[in-house]
Design a protein that fits this description.
The chain is built from 55 helices and 16 strands. It has 1315 residues and is an alpha+beta fold.
């Protein structure tokens, strides 16, 4: 819209834009409105499920009363409340739009268009908008489809909850709601109870009493009682400082106290005497647990009442920089502050300035505002996100020494990154600006958070680089381009998304590598005493093995003290008066650690964190000792995931942080990797399944964070080996299935192009490790179906490591079964043969691998074209089925595997990701070989229709794979299935499209449906053509459109029309086999049908049945030898008299020269016209001087003798072939036949009157063309609807308009089938 040329606009009102071209304005407006509508329609996959749930509720409620208004109600909710306001004012959704009146007017008009579409009404009141009604008519279907889609609600899975893009609910909202209902209880109750009293008169009194309004009011009353709030609204004191009793008492009690501990919290600024005084209150430095709040308040009052300030107004800058949870002053104490403040001091308090609040500070202020009902101590308030912004409020000289560190931070050079989204614990995606400075990260939200109706501020998080333990890319989250910033100790793990994440991660790592130490003035201390105990315990244990005797004794004393504090078994380790330090401290410490772990499991998470944090500062021997005494604590992790345990952690955040610490410990130190595996992960493998599942999730996340092929991923895979169990394999498989499902949210043509590929690749690698050589065959049997499903979807794509991993999955299964049976005599030779086959080059290619020599590394192999790729997938599916058959111990288990695999494939086949869909349909075609119902085929056809609508000539794999699947499924359809005849016509339409890419599959589908219907006896009653044409009636609307383009009529001649569209494959080297097979199937099935109905005579010399003639003629170019022609006659069920030596030479390789004219059974002019026209089309692609040409011209010569008027009519279509034959042929029989055709044509009186002294007979033909003779042949065929029979059908070039039109019609044809 911003690129609109000068002089253009979006206004259609002559009164507002009198000098503009309104027709052009209308075009511009419709173009932009179409773009908006496309964006809206494309948003359906990303539509939040919470909105879907609301829409579904609205739709159901309205549909019960006003069914016709359901979509209007949905439109009023979604468009009127959300979409239209955002279009009119993009700033509402944080989109910056130029304040251009032309654009604003355009946005207003677009909103009107969109809203009218949502309401399903035309413009009427505004005359200048009436020309847009045609545009509304064209787009109403799309908007209705959008409303219909968002009306469908499926609850999201627990692990895939939608993100929430607004402020998270907290207890402050409870306070607001409580106060609202408490204040307006009378009015709300009256409204609800009056609604209940208006119930239908048919309801009983009891029903009225329990009506919706009554129940709602009772629920509100109960909630008000249960959540009774203690009033914190302060009563502001009217007393001055000389009158206020509480104030005087406070000042008296603390007058002799030392205030130096709080001087750093409240610091005066240096300001001119003629200006208000300024003070800085550093809230981030407050530590509520140790701070004497009354002492602080006394010091504040004392300072602002000092002689230097007592006569001056003052301002207070509240420094919220890095505000921590430990600084939150209790609300009841703040109420005391409000009430103890004397009125004369409050009158001098002019301005409260908030500086750099973070998200926690804003939530705290919002809670304070609502609890105090907006009471304020200052006359005015300002909020600032930087010190520079704050200093603009002061015109004179001012010095703020307590904010020097803020000034230093803001003056640091750094890099700014926008277009970044931060995701917090509430699954909110917040747009932020991230600044990477020398000592810290500065993260500022782009959208302000509301504190009250009149105050809002952007949140700014300051993260010192020293607090960052790691930063890396991740591909496991909700979005692509995600990266993680992990803070040291129990800090929050922050998730970000940015299209420039590589640059952001590089900048942070660079700054962290060269950072300078800067002291951030935030008071650090342990959050709980348990942290202190864990730290002291670790210090004592790690140093008790020191070579320094004094240090060993001190460590022992420390351990004794800790045990005494914990009341460990009621006594210290040994009597304190008889100190003895063991010579070998290792066993002693391990034994002590085991007992303490059992005695004080609550220390587990803190102890693990302390040990891991100090590992890097110790020697190798000490690190090994640390791991040994850490090992007994691992078993306690189960306490924190068991909901019935008193140590259970509801959020699981600390438990997951602990697991991440163990993972980082494992990945950081390769020198003691084996010890870590033994002491940590072997113990983890012994935990309960709930704990192991959570740990597995973190391990998988860590592997994906590293990426396929990274050392991080490989180390995690190695760690997985220590946890190998049925539960582990199932968990990885479940995660992999979910990720496969996510690919449909952002479809791609191939899996490596998908945003979730890295996760798929890494999980595949973990699958390989987790499934390696289980202990017995029964464990292997559990996940055979899942494994086959993964392999069929991922094989032969991506990096070499992924391909070899998928290959390894199959080989490992065979190895496991083979080894488990090697001790017995039950080893199947088929398993041995399979293992040998898996090493063959042919099978390796199915997995996308090649190996030039037996000792060389694997290299990638990719099929050269789409057909070979699909063939490889089909061969792979057959290999997996063969593997199942070999390793299955019973038919019952084999059936279970196939059923499970079938369910997995079915769920994948109907996704919208082509990369998954293509492979799933190939596998579905292999598995769905029996008991297929119409419902499954219906789903296939729906997916096929969608694929046709998105069809692209450059990538045909999706359409072709679905066709293959439908073709294989068709024979398994139940008898009398309504789909079989319609599938036949679908195949015909695809063949008619002349698209070489789908020709083979379309031919195969036609043969499959034809043979299936024949086997089911569908043609016994009426024959082939009538039965199939009856099945076509429902499709006439679109099928006839295709027929009209090609100039064919199946009603006039079924065999010639069908042969004409199939024959083009006969001339194609790669398609000849399939075209011939289809023609012979049609011939065979039609012969059987004709025999059932006695259409043919069995006596000697009887001609071919008329229903077969088109197929017979089409097969003649393929039957030029004696053996081939004899086979053709046998397939046509002809009498043996036609196979005598007089007609057919004895030797099979001998060439035949002519087909007896009587054999063809041409008894009327129409048949002769069909044969002549079809032969004319065949001759256009014939070689010109071969047996085929001889046979065909001989037939034409016979027709010339019997039906000269037909030859005269069709001569203009034959003249090019005749001229070419005269010029190139040397066969006397051919020349004789051509001469006869030419002679008969020239004897027509209509033709001879046009000869005007030509110098040659052939030129006469060319001159005659100007007199409309070509039209005579066309008209003759046109009367029969067969004017296209003379066309030499060829395959169309990709992208031609006619091909695109036919493809669109075929999509509509499929829609008609599934209706």
């Amino acid at each position: 819209m911003t690129s609109l040329p000068p002089g253009h606009g979006y206004d259609l009102d002559p009164a507002k834009a009198p000098n503009q071209d309104f027709l052009q304005n209308q075009k511009d407006l419709e173009f932009v409105a179409s773009s908006f509508l496309e964006i809206i329609a494309a948003s359906v996959p990303a539509f939040p499920s919470m909105f879907r749930e609301i829409c579904a509720h609205i739709g159901q409620a309205v549909n019960k009363v006003w069914p016709e208004a359901k979509f209007s109600a949905l439109g009023a909710f979604i468009f009127l409340r959300f979409i239209s306001p955002a279009i009119v004012n993009p700033a509402l959704v944080d989109v910056d739009a130029p304040s251009d009146p032309i654009m604003r007017r355009g946005l207003m008009n677009i909103a009107k268009i969109v809203q009218n579409l949502a309401n399903n009404i035309f413009f009427g009141k505004e005359a200048h908008m009436l020309p847009l009604n045609d545009f509304l008519s064209a787009n109403i279907v799309n908007v209705t489809r959008f409303l219909s889609e968002i009306n469908k609600y499926t609850p999201p899975q627990e692990e895939e909850q939608d993100e929430w893009l607004d402020t998270a609910y907290d207890d402050t909202d409870t306070i607001v709601l409580h106060r609202f209902f408490d204040k307006h209880a009378d009015k709300v109750g009256k409204e609800l109870l009056s609604a209940a009293s208006k119930a239908s008169e048919t309801e009983t009194d009891e029903e009225k009493a329990t009506g919706t309004g009554k129940r709602s009011w009772n629920a509100i009353c109960n909630a008000l009682v249960e959540t009774t709030q203690v009033s914190l609204i302060p009563n502001m004191s009217p007393f001055t400082s000389s009158e206020h009793p509480e104030y005087l008492d406070l000042m008296s009690r603390f007058s002799h106290r030392d205030t130096s501990p709080v001087h750093h919290l409240f610091v005066p600024a240096v300001t001119p005497q003629d200006q208000p005084a300024v003070f800085v209150l550093s809230l981030a430095k407050v530590q509520v647990e140790i701070l004497d709040l009354e002492l602080l308040l006394f010091y504040i009052f004392k300072t602002i009442s000092a002689p230097l300030y007592e006569k001056r107004n003052f301002e207070v800058i509240f420094d919220w920089t890095g505000f921590p949870p430990s600084a939150q002053i209790p609300m009841h104490w703040l109420k005391f502050v409000y009430e103890i403040l004397p009125s004369n001091i409050r009158a001098r308090f002019r301005t409260s300035r908030t500086l750099i609040p973070n998200a926690m500070a804003l939530r705290y202020m919002r809670r304070l505002y609502n609890l105090t009902n907006g009471a304020s101590m200052a006359s005015s308030h300002t909020l600032h996100t930087s010190l520079v912004e704050l200093l603009r409020c002061y015109s004179g000289d001012i010095s703020l020494p307590s904010l020097s560190y803020v000034a230093e931070q803001e003056s640091e050079p750094g890099d700014d990154f926008d277009e970044i989204f931060m995701r917090n614990n509430h699954s909110m995606r917040v747009p932020v600006i991230l600044r990477v400075a020398q000592s810290h990260l500065r993260i500022t939200t782009m959208k302000a958070t509301a504190i009250s109706n009149s105050m809002s501020c952007r949140a700014t998080e300051i993260i010192p680089l020293a607090d960052i333990s790691d930063i890396y890319n991740v591909a496991t989250g909700h979005d692509a381009n995600e990266f993680i910033i992990r803070k040291i100790r129990h800090g929050t793990t922050l998730y970000f998304t940015s299209s420039t994440r590589d640059s952001v991660v590089k900048a942070i790592r660079s700054a962290k590598g060269s950072m300078r130490n800067v002291q951030i003035p935030v008071f650090e201390r342990f959050s709980r005493l348990s942290n202190v105990i864990a730290t002291l315990l670790h210090i004592g244990m790690v140093n008790i093995g020191s070579d320094n005797e004094e240090l060993r004794v001190a460590s022992y004393d420390l351990l004794c003290s800790v045990c005494t504090y914990l009341d460990f078994e009621g006594k210290p380790v040994v009597p304190t008066k008889s100190i003895f330090v063991p010579g070998r401290a290792g066993p002693f410490v391990i034994q002590l650690s085991e007992k303490l772990a059992s005695f004080s499991p609550q220390l587990t998470l803190d102890f693990i964190a302390e040990v891991a944090a100090g590992m890097e500062k110790t020697s190798v021997s000490q690190r090994i000792a640390c791991l040994q005494y850490l090992s007994p604590w691992i078993k306690n992790l189960s306490h924190f995931t068991n909901p019935t345990d008193h140590l259970y952690e509801q959020s699981g955040a600390k438990f997951r942080d602990c697991v991440r610490i163990l993972i980082d410990l494992t990945l950081a130190d390769q020198e003691i990797h084996a010890v870590v595996q033994k002491c940590i992960w072997t113990e983890v493998g012994k935990l309960d399944s709930e704990s192991v599942n959570t740990i597995l999730d973190e391990l998988m996340r860590a592997a994906v964070d590293g990426g396929i092929g990274s050392q991080r991923c490989e180390l995690v895979a190695d760690t997985m080996a220590s946890l190998t169990s049925i539960n582990v394999r199932g968990r990885i498989g479940s995660r992999l299935r979910k990720v496969m499902g996510k690919t449909s949210s952002k479809p791609s043509k191939s899996l490596p192009e998908n945003v979730h590929w890295n996760e798929i690749a890494c999980l595949t690698r973990l699958c390989l490790v987790a499934n390696y050589l289980p202990k017995n065959a029964a464990h292997v049997h559990l996940f055979i179906a899942e494994g086959a499903h993964y392999v069929s979807l991922v094989a032969g794509t991506g990096q070499i490591l992924v391909r070899t991993s998928v290959y390894g999955l199959v080989v490992n299964v065979l190895h496991s079964i083979y080894i488990s049976k090697s001790t017995s005599d039950s080893v199947s030779p088929e398993i041995q043969a399979l293992l040998e086959d898996c090493a063959s080059p042919e099978v390796l290619k199915l997995f996308g691998l090649a190996r030039p020599t037996s000792t060389s590394d694997y290299v990638a192999y990719d099929p050269p074209n789409d057909k070979q790729q699909l063939d490889s997938l089909e061969k792979l599916g057959n290999l997996l089925v063969r593997m199942m058959n070999c390793i299955s111990p019973s038919q019952a288990l084999l059936n279970v595997w196939r059923a499970r695999w079938m369910s997995l494939v079915t769920s994948s086949a109907f996704q919208t990701c082509p990369a998954i869909q293509t492979r799933a349909f190939i596998t579905l075609g292999i598995l769905a070989t029996s008991d297929v119902d119409d419902d499954l085929l219906y789903q296939m056809l729906v997916a096929f229709k969608t694929a046709l609508e998105d069809y692209d000539d450059s990538d045909t794999t999706a359409v072709v794979s679905m066709l293959r699947c439908i073709c294989k499924v068709a024979p398994s359809l139940p008898p009398k299935s309504r789909y079989l005849p319609q599938l036949f016509w679908l195949a015909v339409a695809l063949i008619q499209s002349s698209n070489v890419a789908v020709y083979i599959e379309a031919i195969q589908l036609m043969r499959a449906t034809l043979d299936t219907m024949a086997q089911q006896g569908a043609f016994k009653e009426r024959g082939v053509a009538p039965t199939l044409l009856d099945g076509r009636q429902h499709l006439e609307e679109f099928a006839c459109q295709i027929d009209q383009i090609l100039g064919l009529s199946f009603d006039s001649s079924f065999s010639f029309s069908l042969s004409a569209v199939i024959f083009k494959g006969v001339r194609h080297q790669n398609l000849k086999e399939y075209a011939e097979g289809a023609l012979r199937s049609l011939l065979r099935v039609t012969v059987q049908s004709c025999s059932d109905h006695s259409h043919t005579e069995d006596s000697a010399g009887s001609p071919i049945c008329a229903d077969l003639l088109g197929f017979f003629i089409a097969l003649l170019p393929l039957s030029t030898t004696s053996g081939a022609f004899r086979k053709l006659l046998q397939e046509a069920n002809m009498d043996v008299s036609w196979m005598s030596e007089e007609i057919i030479p004895v030797e099979d390789d001998d060439l035949i020269s002519r087909v007896p004219f009587a054999l063809l059974g041409i008894t009327d002019g129409a048949s002769a016209l069909y044969v002549t026209s079809f032969i004319s089309a065949i001759l256009t692609t014939a070689q010109g001087d071969d047996t085929e040409t001889e046979i065909l011209f001989t037939i034409l010569s016979d027709i010339a003798n019997g039906y000269p008027e037909v030859i005269s009519t069709t001569f203009e279509s034959l003249q090019d072939q005749i001229k070419d034959t005269f010029a190139t042929a040397s066969n006397p029989n051919t020349l004789s036949a051509v001469s006869n055709v030419f002679r008969v044509a020239m004897q027509d009186s209509r033709r001879t009157i046009n000869v005007r002294g030509s110098t040659s007979t052939l030129s006469t033909v060319e001159e005659a063309n100007g007199y409309g003779l070509v039209r005579s042949h066309y008209n003759a065929l046109d009367e029969l609807g067969m004017q296209g029979l003379t066309n030499g059908y060829q395959f169309m070039a990709a992208g031609r308009p006619q091909s695109i039109t036919i493809t669109q019609w075929i999509a509509q044809l499929v829609m008609k089938i599934i209706e």
